[in-house]
């Protein structure tokens, strides 16, 4: 990938590009908790978006996407560009300028190996690699935390998804062999060793393309806010679901819609599952951690209702397969991947079985993606 980008850059724009990478992510547990200011447990993966970039001294930026084989010219002082992929880059520049930075024009070539639309946060990787690269080449002095917020606000303001901060944070802060226990309220985090001896993580992609912007994501967010509004009328210290207990929720249950109740209940329980899961990890108890993953899937499917038939089907097989310690749908939902924690000895039979039974039922073979927890955003030599 590095050579390919360098060559393409040279061919289009000449010598002297600098290279950067920022990865996609997995999340072990803690889904739809980030925008409720709870906890998440993501890790960066060994698949990334790469960019070759160089200031061009001109007025407009020249952007080339390897994956779409398309080059466009964008004036960052002008209107929002047409193609979706260019909006991410445009958004990052705008968000940097809002924070006082001056970002002169540049040329770039970018591409990567994060599967698109599979819930591995290719868009956060794209925002993060541009944030990181521009910060470096123009010496803008933003901290990584601010770069994560810049990526998140790009989604809010230029893409229309009111996402939390998990994906960008994981892409920027990832570390090899560690998952990130992030408190989304304070942004304090801890790098937790993740080294399940004799086990591995595998993703099974339903090939169902999730479309977060298709409003359901934003609807969930609003339902959570509605629940918070009801309880905070009585207990003003409750400002997010992070501040709410099941007791509080149950006390004011009658004042809210049944759907809102279920959404809030899921989030409160998911935060607790994550905390219990982390304690299990500290003791090296991966079997108990796996149970929490199954619990998470159940809640996402029944209470939060962001799963789909295909995801439930795979999670169901995982549940009844010996040697699969845990499995759950991952990311925003409505498609994408199931992440499983599997014993090495059971891996092949499990993946084979899922592929065969899934293909028989849905007529498509899911792809399996092995992931290794890896480093976050970086400059490449
Ligand atoms: C998407 C969002 C994240 C997070 C997850 C669900 O990946 O970008 O902020 O909310 O969904 O946990």
Task: Give a written overview of the molecule.
With 381 residues, the chain is of the alpha+beta class. The chain folds into 2 domains: 2-194 and 375-380, 2-Layer Sandwich (Ribosomal Protein S5, domain 2); 199-371, GHMP kinase, C-terminal domain (Alpha-Beta Plaits). It contains 11 helices and 13 strands. A 6-stranded mixed sheet has the order 5-4-6-3-1-13. A 4-stranded antiparallel sheet has the order 10-11-9-12. α2 (84-98) packs across α4 (144-159), α3 packs across α5 and α4 packs antiparallel against α5 (166-173). The relative contact order is 0.17. The model has no long low-confidence stretch (mean pLDDT 96). Alpha-D-galactopyranose binds at residues 31-32, 34-35, 121, 163-164, 166-167, 331-332.
Describe the protein's topology:
Elements: H1 2-13, E1 18-27, E2 39-40, E3 42-55, E4 61-65, E5 70-74, H2 84-98, E6 106-112, H3 122-137, H4 144-159, H5 166-173, E7 178-183, E8 189-193, E9 199-205, H6 216-234, H7 246-251, H8 258-282, H9 286-302, H10 309-319, E10 324-329, E11 337-343, H11 344-362, E12 367-370, E13 378-380
Parallel strand pairs: 4-6
Antiparallel strand pairs: 1-3, 1-13, 2-7, 3-6, 4-5, 7-8, 9-11, 9-12, 10-11
Helix pairs in contact: 2-3, 2-4, 3-4, 3-5, 4-5, 6-8, 8-9, 10-11
Bound molecules: alpha-D-galactopyranose.
For this entry, give a set of tags.
2 domains; four-stranded antiparallel β-sheet; Alpha-Beta Plaits; Ribosomal Protein S5, domain 2; six-stranded mixed β-sheet; 43% helix; binds alpha-D-galactopyranose; alpha+beta; globular; single chain; 11 helices; 381 residues; 21% strand
């Amino acid at each position: 990938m590095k050579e390919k980008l360098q060559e393409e850059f040279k061919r289009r724009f000449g010598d002297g590009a600098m290279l950067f990478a920022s990865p996609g992510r997995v999340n072990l547990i803690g889904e739809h908790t980030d925008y409720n200011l709870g906890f998440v447990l993501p890790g960066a993966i060994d698949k990334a978006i790469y960019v070759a970039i160089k200031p061009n001294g001109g007025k407009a930026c020249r952007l080339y996407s390897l994956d779409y084989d398309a080059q466009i010219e964008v004036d960052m002082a002008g209107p929002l560009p047409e193609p979706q992929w260019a909006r991410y880059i445009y958004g990052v520049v705008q968000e940097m300028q809002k924070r006082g930075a001056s970002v002169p024009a540049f040329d770039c070539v970018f591409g990567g190996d994060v599967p698109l639309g599979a819930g591995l946060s290719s868009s956060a990787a794209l925002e993060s690699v541009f944030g990181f690269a521009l910060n470096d080449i123009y010496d803008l002095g933003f901290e990584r935390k601010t770069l994560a917020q810049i990526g998140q606000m790009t989604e809010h303001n230029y893409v229309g998804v009111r996402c939390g901060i998990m994906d960008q944070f994981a892409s920027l802060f990832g570390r090899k062999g560690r998952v990130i226990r992030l408190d989304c309220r304070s942004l304090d985090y801890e790098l937790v060793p993740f080294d399940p001896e004799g086990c591995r993580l595998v993703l099974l992609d339903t090939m169902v393309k999730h479309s977060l912007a298709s409003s359901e994501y934003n609807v969930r967010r609003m339902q959570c806010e509605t629940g918070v509004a009801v309880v905070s009328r009585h207990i003003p210290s409750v400002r997010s679901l992070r501040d709410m207990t099941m007791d509080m929720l149950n006390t004011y249950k009658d004042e809210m819609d049944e759907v809102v109740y279920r959404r809030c209940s899921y989030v409160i329980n998911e935060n607790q599952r994550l905390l219990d899961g982390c304690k299990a990890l500290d003791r090296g108890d991966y079997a108990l951690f796996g149970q929490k993953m199954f619990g998470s899937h159940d809640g996402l499917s029944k209470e939060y209702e962001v799963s789909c038939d295909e995801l439930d089907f795979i999670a169901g097989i995982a549940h009844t397969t010996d040697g699969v310690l845990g499995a759950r749908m991952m990311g925003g939902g409505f498609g994408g991947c199931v992440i499983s924690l599997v014993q090495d000895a059971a891996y092949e039979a499990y993946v084979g079985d899922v592929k065969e039974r899934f293909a028989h039922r849905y007529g498509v073979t899911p792809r399996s993606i092995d992931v290794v927890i890896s480093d976050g955003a970086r400059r490449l030599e």
